[in-house]
Specification:
Structural class: mainly alpha
Largest sheet: 2 strands, antiparallel
Amino acid sequence: MQWQEKVHAPKPTIRHGLLSLVSSIFSLLGMTLFLILLLYQLKTWLETGFWPSLPVRILLVDVLHLSAITDYTSWYNAPTKWFGLHTMAKAFVEDLPLSIFFLVLGKLIAILVDGIAHFIPQSRNKVITMANFK
């Protein structure tokens, strides 16, 4: 009789499954918000002939009330330093569509969670089988 040891591929743990689920949820959430906003804009355009602009500013000012933070708004409205960063921030807030923002944010969070799952050690199962009876 000859015994032979076979090592199977790493077995995912419950943590890997949960992180994969969280990653999928954020990715789907981003895609869903993207589609909802895009369909809203399309519906409005079909009804009125006007394409509504939905930049990230709507989320920051109207939903999160970020304009109440005086340090942020004073620099945003009249910068005294970091002019290049101001130009980038203003373009991001004023020009980036909210639908694209949610799509990219959902995917970035999904990639981050997948990256975290990559560093969690996986368990290895060893199976010993008997082969080649002689």
